[in-house]
Amino acid sequence: MVSRVIPVDDFDLVIFGGTGDLARRKILPGLFRRFCSGQMPAQSRIIGAARSELSDAAFRRDIKAALEEFLPKDSFSAKEVKAFLDQLHYVRIDATGTEGWGALKKLVRNDKDTIQAFYFSVAPSLFGDLAERLHTNKIAGPGARIVVEKPFGRDLGSAKKLNSTLRDHFDESQIYRIDHYLGKETVQNLMAVRFGNMLFEPLWNAQYVDHVQITVAETVGVGGRGAYYDKSGAMRDMVQNHLMQLLCLIAMEPPSHFDPDAVRDEKLKVIRALDPPKRDDIVRGQYESATDGKGYLEEVESNDSITESFIAMKLAISNWRWAGVPFYLRTGKRMKARTSEISIVFKETPHSIFDKDSGRHRNILSIRLQPNEGITLGVTIKEPGPGGMRLVDVPLDMTFADALGPEAEGVPDAYERLIMDVIRGNQTLFMRGDEVEAAWSWTDPIIEDWTRRGERPKPYDVGTTGPEDAAVLMHREGRRWLDIKA
Ligand code: NAP
C-alpha cells in the first residue's frame, strides 16, 4: 500500500501561546511531522506569538529543544529540523494590549492566495481579546480560520458567552473547536467501519445491540493541574466533551454525506435525545492512595474537595434506534491502566443449538483509541481439537500497526490531522457551537444537583477500576464492565 500525502495550499499559521505547553508538546511537533511528510508548502510560515521577549532565533532554539524532547529520538534528521525551523517566526504580543499587533500585521499575509489560520493556544479568557484585535487591526481576512482549545466554557452560560464573543468577529464557518479525540485515526475508522461496510449498520440498533461501553481510563493523577482540575472534575474535563463526542459518533444516524454539517447535525440530534440520567445511574469517585501520599486530596491540597476524579454512568438515548439500550460511560484518573476503548456488546443469539456446557457467547466490537489504535471483533468459533463442540471467543484483530505494517507509522496523530484539516477548511472533525451548547445543557443540571447536595464522591484505591459502586451499576443489570487493559 502506498501512503498518500495530499499537500495543502500555502498558509500562514499564527500560534498565540506559541511558547506554551500545548504548542511545544503537541502543535509544533505535529506540524514538524507534517513538514517531514512533505505536506507543508515551502513558503508557508508558522508564527509563534506570546508575551515573552524572544527573537526568531531564540524561538527556533526553543522549538528545536521541544522537538528533541517530545518526538522519538532518531525519528528525524538535523537537516529536516533546520529546514522546518527556517519557516518559523516569532512576534512578541500582548493579547490584552496594543503591543505587537503592528508587527504581526506586517508578517501575516492577507491576500486571497494564502490561507490564514490563528490558533488560540492560550487561556479561554483571552479568546475575546485575540478575536477583537485580529479584527480591529485588520489582520484576519474574510477567509481566516481560528482554532480554539478546550475547555470551551464551564457551563452553558459561559459557553454561550464564548460563542457569542467569537461570533462577534468570526462566522461559525471560520471557527474550529478542537476535541483531539475526534482527530484520532480510529475514530474516523469507526465511521469507515460503520458506513463503509454492509456488515455492521444493519445490526447497529436496539434489536441486536445489548449495550455500549465507553471507557477512558488514565493512570496519571491531577499532578500539576490540581488547581484547574479541582474546579472542573471528570464531568466537565472528560464527559461533556470527549466521551460525549464518542457517544455521538456511535449513536448517530448515518449522515447523508461525510461533510461537516451533515455529520454535526446528526451528532447534535443524539445529544438532544439523551435522557437526563437518574441519580442512582451515576457513580462519582475520588482516588485515594495509602502508599505514595498522592491521593486526590493531597494533590489538590484540600481536605474537603468533593470534586470527582472518576465517573461512571448509565445513559439512555430516547429514539427508535436505541430504545432500551444502555450506554455505559466510565472515565477516571489513577486507574489500573491507560486505555480509551469503545465496545459495542451485541446480544446473545436467540437460541443456542449447542449443549449448555458449550456456554453462551456474544460478539463484541471493540474500538481502541489508545494504546495500539485498532478495531477488534470478537467472534465465536469451535475450540480446535477433539472433545466435542466447545465454543471459544477469538478476536478478529484489525490493529492498524499489524494490518498496515510500516504504513501505520506514517499515520498522523490527532493534532497533526486536525491542524491540516483547519488548513484544508474541513470542519467535520470539529465541534460546532450548537453541539457544545447542547452538551452543556445536558450536563449542567447534573452538576447543579451534585453541588446542591454536596455529597462526597466514593473513594477508590489508585491502580484499580474505580469505586465498587461502578461495578454494581453494571451487576445489578446482569452486566459487567470489560477489563481495562493497557
Ligand atoms: P500554558 O503552558 O500556560 O501557555 C500559555 C501561553 O499563552 C504561553 O505561551 C504564554 O506565553 C501565552 N500567554 C499568556 N498570556 C498571554 C497574553 N496576555 N498575551 C499573549 N500571550 C499570552 O498553557 P497551555 O497548557 O499551552 O494551554 C493553552 C490552551 O490550551 C489553554 O486554553 C488550555 O486549556 C488548552 N489545552 C491545553 C492542553 C495541554 O496539554 N497543555 C490540553 C488541552 C487544552 P507568555 O507568558 O510568554 O505570554
From TrEMBL:
Coiled coil: none annotated. Keywords: Carbohydrate metabolism, Glucose metabolism, NADP, Oxidoreductase. Residues 191-481 form the Glucose-6-phosphate dehydrogenase C-terminal domain. Its EC number is 1.1.1.49. GO terms for biological process: glucose metabolic process; pentose-phosphate shunt, oxidative branch. Pfam families: G6PD_C, G6PD_N. GO terms for molecular function: glucose-6-phosphate dehydrogenase activity; NADP binding. It catalyses: D-glucose 6-phosphate + NADP(+) = 6-phospho-D-glucono-1,5-lactone + NADPH + H(+). Pathway: Carbohydrate degradation; pentose phosphate pathway; D-ribulose 5-phosphate from D-glucose 6-phosphate (oxidative stage): step 1/3. It comes from the Bacteria. Residues 14-189 form the Glucose-6-phosphate dehydrogenase NAD-binding domain. NADP(+) binds at residues 17-24, 51, 150. HAMAP family: G6PD. Belongs to the glucose-6-phosphate dehydrogenase family. This is Glucose-6-phosphate 1-dehydrogenase. It comes from Boseongicola aestuarii. The lineage of its organism: Bacteria, Pseudomonadati, Pseudomonadota, Alphaproteobacteria, Rhodobacterales. The gene is zwf.
